[in-house]
Write a structure and sequence with these properties.
Elements lengths: L14 H18 L1 E5 H20 L2 H10 L3 H15 L8 E6 L11 E6 L6 H14 L7 H11 L5 H24 L1
Antiparallel strand pairs: 1-3, 2-3
Helix pairs in contact: 1-2, 2-3, 2-4, 3-4, 5-6, 5-7
Length: about 190
């Protein structure tokens, strides 16, 4: 049957090269919590990263051995996967990573669609910071907070421990930053 359903993206590479690429992307993701790559690579790396975090939540000897075969630097990343990330995502039923589309990185060459792959609820969670920035802007108007912003607040704080307090802390930080910038303009 020609043209059957694809089980994965081939990424124009041989199988061994594709696996090495995905292992490298996932290792970088767990190192930096956020990486920028092409959209197709990000979607494939997201699948592998979600499986790794699920292995971390299981926390068995078999899951440790399986995760050890995927990471390029297992001694550096296994303790983090089975402690920090396991605790962060213990109550979350899935969706540990997020892919955000951005403008093409190589504007002058191939115009390939680019994306940011990030771990959710981490210190570099872009959606969390964007929601805080939107809250600052909307609270400054007379109209108040819109319904869609309230939904986004619920989404970014639902599985985060102390999420509402963290969001309010970030909002206050951004308000102070905006106030300081206005004060510098006046002086």
């Amino acid at each position: 049957m020609a043209g059957g359903a694809l089980k994965y993206r081939h990424l124009s590479r041989k199988s061994s090269h594709r696996q090495a690429l995905l292992r490298n992307l996932v290792t970088s993701l767990f190192t930096h919590e956020s990486i920028t790559t092409t959209w197709h690579k990000a979607k494939e790396a997201q699948r592998l990263a979600e499986k790794l975090i699920t292995l971390g939540k299981k926390n068995t000897n078999a899951s440790r051995r399986r995760a050890e075969t995927i990471f390029y630097e297992p001694l550096q990343h296994l303790p983090r996967l089975f402690t920090t990330l396991r605790d962060r995502y213990l109550n979350r039923p899935g969706g540990y990573t997020r892919v955000l589309r951005i403008e093409p990185m190589n504007k002058h060459y191939d115009q390939a669609p680019s994306a940011i792959l990030e771990l959710v609820d981490g210190p570099k969670d872009m959606r969390f910071h964007m929601t805080a920035k939107t809250l600052v802007r909307e609270r400054a108007t007379e109209e108040g907070v819109r319904e869609i912003t309230a939904r986004n607040v619920n989404k970014v704080t639902r599985y985060r421990d102390g999420g509402v307090k963290e969001l309010e802390k970030e909002v206050k930080r951004m308000e102070n930053k905006a106030w300081n910038e206005e004060f510098k303009e006046v002086c």
